[in-house]
Design goal:
By secondary structure, the chain is mainly alpha-helical. It contains 16 helices and no strands. Helix 5 crosses helix 14. The longest helix has 33 residues.
């Protein structure tokens, strides 16, 4: 694979990581977890943040040692062979055009808090945003990295300002803690909802070659981003427990109550920007993977070109075009996106688990405890998804035989060519 000239530093990478994880849920998921588990939501966020750390460390180490645009697909291929690795890559490509539109539609909860949109007007606006993402990435991910680092600082600043306005409300905290007896099923249910926020840990591995020094900066960037995100979600959940509100988007109500108004504008703009940031990183990651597969002959060669800034423009246009098609079809058919979100989670469970198993073969034995913790996390999450993991299993059942046939067909052609 051709190596790109990296332009992303450690702090820009941390900003990319943080905004990818904060994404559509930064100001929405905390209230959903509270609705499930009340004060137990704090425990759910804490446990989830701790559980994702070993997974992040393993992904960071894999990306720093084996930087490649294919990310998890490349790790699995090195560990288990071409068919396994390419299966992981293709199921990632097939899920991004579904998961990203779901994220865009979630983002429009904030858009509608500012400017109510319905029908084809909303669809047209969504398509314009996808066009904007295409234009933003034409000069490379480093432009987006700088903007997203600034966005992360803005979100942190708002959360700190809300805490400052609230003060350390010990009476409110004690009232929330009275009778606190977390029920394990409710806490696990809340953690299952919260997991959507940590989808994106693996996306950074596709961008390893965009780092100036991936061997030195990948792990610090990913850990800084993950830790910061965990703290922000914990802080937002605590704020909602201390300052109850009846607002549809609870963080907007908290902002209005503590800072005297303009919550819809401030929280809305940050929510829109962070949601689009998530879609942006996944688009760039999927485009890199499509470009890599095109160069290797797995997919058509038309996607293997780069522009003057090292951006796979045709691959990026194809990924964003598929997203646009899904958005239009979703509107026309009236399809509910809750199923798409659950199916997306199932695919990522398989990607994470296979990456952890690959790490067991590729990394030194001192990483084995982290790998085991990561595997246990993936298995527990898979069990919690239940029947929703069926879609991921069906994808594997279709893609793996196709890739095995493709490999066998190429081998036969090479043998015939020799004779």
């Amino acid at each position: 694979m051709n190596q790109n000239t990296g332009t992303i530093g450690r702090w820009q990478g941390a900003g990319l990581m943080a905004t990818t994880l904060l994404g559509t849920g930064v100001f929405i998921l905390p209230q959903m977890t509270i609705a499930k588990a009340d004060s137990g939501a704090l425990l759910a966020w804490l446990l989830l943040t701790l559980a994702i750390i070993p997974v992040t460390l393993v992904f960071g180490r894999l990306a720093s040692v084996f930087p490649h645009a294919a990310g998890p697909a490349y790790f699995v291929e090195k560990a288990f062979g071409r068919t396994a690795g390419r299966t992981i890559g293709l199921i990632f490509l097939l899920v991004v055009p579904m998961g990203a539109p779901a994220a865009i539609l979630m983002t429009f909860q904030f858009v509608n808090a500012l400017v109510p949109l319905t029908g084809w007007t909303q669809v047209g606006t969504e398509l314009l945003l996808i066009l904007g993402l295409f234009l933003l990435n034409l000069r490379g991910i480093q432009v987006s990295a700088k903007l997203q680092f600034a966005l992360t600082l803005g979100i942190v600043a708002v959360v700190v300002a809300l805490f400052g306005a609230a003060g350390l409300n010990l009476d409110g905290l004690q009232a929330s803690a009275q009778g606190f007896s977390p029920q394990t099923p409710l806490v696990m249910a809340a953690a299952g909802i919260a997991f959507w926020s940590f989808l994106g840990v693996e996306a950074m591995t596709h961008l390893a070659n965009d780092f100036r020094r991936p061997d030195r900066d990948m792990i610090p960037a990913m850990m800084l981003g993950t830790g910061l995100v965990g703290l922000i979600y914990l802080a937002c959940t605590l704020l909602l427990l201390l300052v109850p509100t009846d607002s549809g988007v609870a963080m907007i109500g908290v902002f209005d109550r503590l800072l005297g108004g303009y919550g819809a504008q401030v929280i809305g703009i940050l929510g829109i920007a962070s949601g689009l940031a998530t879609v942006n990183v996944y688009s760039a990651s999927a485009a890199r993977l499509l470009w890599s597969f095109s160069r290797e002959g797995i997919l058509p060669r038309r996607f293997d070109s780069l522009n003057g800034h090292g951006v796979p423009v045709r691959a990026l246009a194809a990924i964003l075009g598929l997203m646009a098609c899904v958005l239009v079809l979703t509107f026309v058919t009236g399809q509910e996106l809750e199923h798409l979100i659950s199916w997306t989670n199932g695919v990522f469970v398989i990607i994470y688990l296979m990456s952890m198993l690959a790490a067991a073969r590729l990394l030194s034995k001192r990483y084995l405890p982290l790998v085991l913790l990561g595997c246990l996390f993936c298995l527990a999450l898979g069990l919690s998804l239940g029947a929703n993991i069926t879609y991921a299993c069906l994808l594997v059942a279709v893609v793996a035989p196709f890739l095995w046939w493709q490999k066998s067909h190429l081998v036969r052609k090479q043998v015939l060519a020799k004779h």
